[in-house]
Amino acid sequence: MIGKGVSVLRVTLEAVKHIKKLRNLYSLYLYDLSEFSYSLSLNADGLYEFEGFDKVIEREELQPYFIQYEGECVGFLLLAERPFTATGTDYCINDVFILRAFRGRGLASDAVYELLQQRSGYFCVPQLQANERALQFWRSFYARHGIFYREEHRLIDGEPCTVHTFKV
Does the keyword Cell membrane apply (predicted)? Predict the structure, then answer.
């Protein structure tokens, strides 16, 4: 668990039960990521679609959570466990998404903090290298909470990524 930089949490994590809502949020998330990756494109219905979405719903090792703020869903977080993690890690915080209307309020930080209060072990966080905003978010989060992390650059699914690993 982490303790430095503790603030009163304003968000809760809710296990996903509404699959269609998660699918729709993923489309918005992938739309945002399309700014940094040429491999993302619209499907025949005009939506961005995650090829592995069915796995997210079917596999126990993939745990999606809605991020709730003041009783409203404002985004989601996807936590992966082995075998969907980097070698030597227990968990992977694979995706964190906050709807644009709620960004800049510290809600993503609160959601990650809440998750890390519930789990301990070795974590990895992969990000597209071109997504500087996400990389800065994570570096600031680690600094604020006194988390020592290691940074590596890897190709993941053909995309240049920065991968952070740390222990809590």
Answer: no
Alpha carbons 168 and 158: distance in angstroms, whole number: 29
Contact 40, 50 (CB under 8 A): no
**Eight-class DSSP state of 108:** H
CB half-sphere exposure, 48, CA atoms < 13 A: 17
Residue whose C-alpha is closest to residue 25's, from 84, 85, 68, 80: 68
- Tens of pLDDT, residues 20-37: 999 999 999 999 999 999
**Alpha carbons 45 and 101: distance in angstroms, whole number:** 25
Burial 103-115 (b: 16+ CB within 10 A, else e): eeebbbbbbbbbb
Residue 119 structure tokens: 């789990």
Fold classified for 11-167: Aminopeptidase (3.40.630)
**pTM given for the model:** 0.91
**Whole-number pLDDT of residue 13:** 96
Can you tell me the distance from the alpha carbon of 1 to that of 35, in angstroms, rounded to the nearest whole number? Answer: 34
